[in-house]
Amino acid sequence: MFRALRGRNYRLWAIADLISVTGSWMQLIGLNWVVMERTGSATSVGLSVLLSALPSVLLGPWAGALADRVPVRRVILACQSSHAVLAALLALAVWREAPMPLVFGLTALAGLVTVFDGPALGRFGGQVVAREDLGNALALGSVLSSTGRILGMSTAAVLAAAVGAPVLFLVNALSFFAVVGAVLAVRREELHPLASSPEEQVGVRAGLRHVTASGRLLLLFALGFALSSLGRNYQVTMAAMSDSAASYGTLSTVFAVGTVLGGLAAAARKALTVRLLLVVAGVTSALQAVSGVVPGMLGFAVVLVPIAAGAVVIDTTLSTRVQLDTADGMRGRVLAINGSVGAAAGAVGAPLLGWLCERIGAPETLVLAGVLTLLATLFAASVLAAPPHRRAALAHRVLRRPHHPPVPAGRPHGPTRPGGPVRRRARVRV
Fold this sequence. Notes:
Layout: H1 8-39, H2 42-69, H3 72-95, H4 100-125, H5 134-163, H6 166-185, H7 204-212, H8 215-231, H9 234-241, H10 245-268, H11 274-291, H12 296-324, H13 331-360, H14 362-384, H15 388-398
């Protein structure tokens, strides 16, 4: 289950990841609390989330192209150092009670740095383990992220009450140096380098052409968008299902425990396949619909555990397949596009689910979203079961591009008449 931990480089990377994720969650809790305390507006909290996610939606492909062209160690060191400076400035701004536009501006800058940081981290993370252990490393990364989330949320509550919110930003600033130290400490001779793109395949356009030319990648991204926007924005639906802050905190803890179990389940599997992705997506979607009709908060919490576990298995499997089924030289751009899809799903899905909860009710929203994601999963399964040329034809039809199937051997190119081969017109000499 923990075979990726056999390598020294990955152990360093995993420890740094846990520390950094814990600090990031501490800052997120502190930022949301400060914005809510000063403005009294949930919309302002949503605005801070949007400012963090919007750069990923707009600039993701360019960040991926950069990660595929320049040494990722330089990108990581520059971005992590910038994150540390911005977190320290946020701590100063909160401590001095600076105007909220300044806080929002620093939040947007942090989101901009994250755009370029993400693909580089993903590409470097693929070098600290062997190719056959990448799925296991991603699954263990999900466990570490869930553990860091629990540690960050619980520690943030204690520190904020004891010494105030600014210290949360300072702790996060220090946590970035764990990643810097890990990058500098890894043994370069034990890395598993990824191939670079040839000259004709560099740049954003080449990455977009690569993705749009692959019906499989397009389908996986579309399914990921549907599942993320309607199926895994549980911060919204859990809040709508809760009748108090205590119950919301309990549901958040239950969800976090489920994500840990899901990460362990993914790590226990030798291979993470598309079939596993479709099966877990179908089961999770059905459980989401069931969660809207189970009676009582206890019943909802019980169903929430396998839903959270399934969400991690889906994310881990999708990320694994996107990376392993893509050429090494395209990995940064594909990871960036995957991140942009996830950010767009959160930006679209969260307000939509919130609006539906207010209009038709939280239980009804869970049922509707579960049915829609189940239908999306069934559609994806039917398309993936089709022959490759039909999948390609569907992708080109969606993109409104002409599709030219391969011509069988021995057949002439171009259209032929129904009655038989084209007769050549006699040449008349004059």
